[in-house]
Amino acid sequence: MMPTNDFFIWVPLLFLCSSLFLLKIIRKQAKPNNRLLPPTPPKLPLLGHLHLLGSHPHRSFTKLSKKYGPVMLLQLGSVPTIVISSAAAAKELFKFHDLASCSRPRLTGSGRFSYNFLDLNLSPYGERWRELRKICMLHLFTARRVQSFREIREEEVGRLLNSISQSSSSSSPIDLSEKSYSLTANITTRVAFGSIFSGAKLDDEHFQHVIRRAVAAIGSFSMADFIPTFGWIIDRLNGVHERLEKSFAEMDAFFQHVVDDRINFKESSKNEENIVDVLLRMERESSESDALKVTQDCIKALIMPPHMELDVAASSNVVPSQVGLEVGTVVVYGDPIAAVTEWVAEDIGLQ
């Protein structure tokens, strides 16, 4: 008869070995045919091909594509990823397999700041996305509503010109990057939020600070995106999760103030609706039976990306570069009135 102590040792060991053997069989059966997969470099356990990316992933992709072809398979942690490095392959993908590739990856930072993918930019393609797009096209971005914001655009452009004129009169240096950023940010915030806030005007410096912290948090490297099983533990140990939550709480408090302010302001005003007002009206009119119920989280998710992901990034990089290019054209070719008039007519569309 086997001693009791040996029994409690061998039974768990036998169970563990059997489980590992069955798991190996299941994984082998579920493994797809390698002949159907693109070429792939040798990989490391757990990390996959993350070690091959280096500090300049785009250069690493170029180098790898020269060896493994324009379509290759990379294992980023435990996430299989197809990398396309040629225009012909990209054209075929978007032309014949658009539905399979039109959704963005569900990343940790993007999901947190979009209130679990409630916005239009990051929401996966499906029935909800189509309903959300329909709402935006029918209620937010109509030609009539865009035309109603023309006065805001003209006021902000006039304010920019006055500021430049005053700086020129006093021979002060002009930071075109900062001024072009302020122009785009002011137009965006006035169109989305309105220009009147309870207590005081919108604090531009605080607004920019909050958004830039949010953009940095979203762009930070998160192990949970590559190794979902235990990557979240690493994120908590190295402080990534804490920084993400702190930045989100700051951003959420800011946009909640915007929503609350518009609720209080509209109770005593009948002025033209801005985008937040339209969404709040839809929230009041929506019901549980609607295909897409508008909530305050949904409202904040919809008004957040234009500032956080698009306008701030574009305003601080693309727009200043474009303005600098046009100013350089004026300096080189002379006739500033004609150059500026042509630029406004072509790029902005004002007569």
Automatic annotation (TrEMBL):
It holds the Pfam family p450. Its cofactor is heme. Belongs to the cytochrome P450 family. This is Cytochrome P450 71B36. Keywords: Heme, Iron, Membrane, Metal-binding, Monooxygenase, Oxidoreductase, Transmembrane, Transmembrane helix. It comes from Cucurbita argyrosperma subsp. sororia. GO terms for molecular function: heme binding; iron ion binding; monooxygenase activity; oxidoreductase activity, acting on paired donors, with incorporation or reduction of molecular oxygen. It comes from the Eukaryota. The chain crosses the membrane at residues 7-26. InterPro entries: Cyt_P450.
